[in-house]
Amino acid sequence: MENLLRPLIVVGGSVVLTLFIGWATDRLLCKADQRHPETPLWGLLRRGRIPYQLVLCAALLRGSYDQVEVLQEHKTAVGRTLTLVLIGAAAWLVIRIAAAVVETSYSRYARVHRDAARVRRVRTQVTLIMRVVSAIVGVVAVAAMLLTFPTFRAAGASLLASAGILGIVAGVAAQSTLSNMFAGLQIAFGDMVRIGDTVVVDGEWGTVEEITLTFLTVRTWDERRITMPVSYFTSKPFENWSRGTPQMTGIVYWHVDHSAPLDAMREKLRDILRECPAWDGRAYGLDVTDTTPNTMQVRALVTAKDADDIWTARVTVREQMIRWLTEEHPYALPRVNTADATTPPNRTNGRPSVDGAPPRQRRAHEAPRADR
C-alpha cells in the first residue's frame, strides 16, 4: 500500500503545487498589469504561464523522483525524460520572456515616435532579432538535450576535432542559405526595406508582409503572396514607394479630340479632387502632353499621402472625367474623321491657278491673245 501511495502523493503533490504556484503567479501578473496600464510587459509575461508551469512540474518531479520506489528498473530513462522536458520547457519560457521584453520595447518606441517609416524600421528589426534569439535558444536547448546522453558526451572530443572540416563543408553546401541570412540582417539594420513598405518587384506592386532571415513575402493588391529570397533585395534594383516620405504623385492620361474643352476639364478636375477623400490637397494639374493626327493626349497630376490613396485618386479621376465628358461634352471624345478633305486656297486638282481664276476661264482669256 505504501508503494502505491508514495508515488501518488509525490506526483499529485507536484502537480497541485505547480498549478497553485502558476495560478498565484498569474494573479500577481494580472494585478501588475492593471496597476501599470502604460506598459504591456506584465500582460505579455502572462503568455508564458504554460512553459512556466511545465518548468515547475518537471523540476519538482525530477527532484522528488528519487524518493519514489517505483519503476526502479527504468529510473535512468524516467529521469532523463524529465530532464529533457525541463530543458525544453525552460527554452520555451526564455523565448516567451524575451518576446515580452522586446515587444514592450517596440510598443514604447511606437508610442513615442510618430514617424511611420521609423516605426516600421524598428518593427522589422525587432522581428528579425526575435527570430535570431529563438534560433539561438533552440540550438542551445537541443545541444543541452543531446549532452544528457553519455554517447554524445563521449563523442564530443571527436566532434570538436572535426568541427573545422564540418564547418567548411557546411559553409560550401549552405552558401545560398548563409548569403540569405546575412542579406536579412543587412535589410533589417540597413533600412533598405521594412514591413509595411509598398514595393514593386518584377513588375508586381504590393506590400511587404513578412521578413525573415532567409525570405521575404510581398502581398500584392489582388491578395497574392510573392515569396522571394532576401538576397534579391541586396543584389537587384527594386522600387520602394515608402522610402523617405510616403507621399506620392500620380498620373492619369486621356486621349481626347482636338476640340476638347481644356479649361472646363481643369475645372472639373478640381471639383472631382475636392470631393475625393484620397486627395491630400497638395497639388493638381492638367496639361496637353502630346498630339496625334486624330487626338491629343491630356495628362492630369494628382497627389496623395501614400500609395493606396494615390491609386484611389487616380481611378476616381479617370472614371469621373470620362463620365463627365460623355454626358456633357461628347464631341470631345476620340472619333474617326470621315469628312471630305478641304481644298487648300489657290489650288484646283492639284495645279495652281492664275490670279485665283479657274483654268477654264484662264484658257478662254488667253485664246484671243493667241489669235492676235
Q: Order of helices and strands, N to C?
A: HHHHHHHHHEEEEHEEHEEHEEH
Strand content: 5-15%
Compute the separation of the termini in Å. 159 Å
Average pLDDT level:
76
The secondary structure category is alpha+beta
Rounded radius of gyration (Å): 39 Å
Query: DSSP helix count?
Result: 13
Strand order of the largest sheet: 4-3-2-1-5
Shape: elongated
**How many strand segments?**
10
Unreliable residue runs: 350-372
User: How would you sum up the major sheet?
Assistant: 5 strands, antiparallel
How helix-rich are the residues, as a percent range? 55-70%
Ordered list of secondary-structure elements with their pairings:
Blueprint: H1 2-35, H2 41-45, H3 49-64, H4 75-112, H5 116-147, H6 150-154, H7 156-161, H8 163-173, H9 175-190, E1 198-201, E2 204-211, E3 215-220, E4 225-229, H10 232-235, E5 239-240, E6 248-256, H11 262-274, E7 284-291, E8 296-304, H12 307-328, E9 347-348, E10 351-352, H13 359-371
Antiparallel strand pairs: 1-2, 1-5, 2-3, 3-4, 6-8, 7-8, 9-10
